[in-house]
Amino acid sequence: MEPRTPAESASAADAHTYLTYRMPLPRLTLTPGVGHGPLHGAWWPRCDALELELPSLLGSLGPGWGSPMRVTVDPADWPDAPNTVMAPGRVIAVEPAGPGSEAHLLTVDCAGVGRWVLLVVPPEETAGNAARLLAAAADPENPLTAARMLTLSETGPLVGTDGDAE
Predict the structure, then answer these.
(1) Cβ 55 vs Cβ 88: under 8 Å
(2) Is 45 domain-assigned?
């Protein structure tokens, strides 16, 4: 008996599994309720391919998936960001942040539903440092900006680790 490839031995439904790849759930933390700081949470993408990462992130934000969405990104973080990203059943508009905007931010505007401002933790960040940043960005009392949090994460404590913001 000759060995068969997965595509040869799979049913039609199973064959689709071999052709489709889904990104794992995003590494995301959100501020519970209404926060007092400039951030609504943080996102740690696995790679710098926004077209691969963004659909999973937006699907995790919950309500409003049927509403028009616009995403604003830091051009320094995403220099090759496309103008649009395809997701199942929709096209997401992607815009670079304007001059003078804060670095390391991603903003999701969902018409009629809400707005999320997220710290983007660089994909190459170590797991320990990324975990600290994700936790601190979701702290509703965190007054720090995204850039300040990234700087402090390399040199000292963040909000939520010792109770004080620097």
Answers:
(1) yes
(2) yes
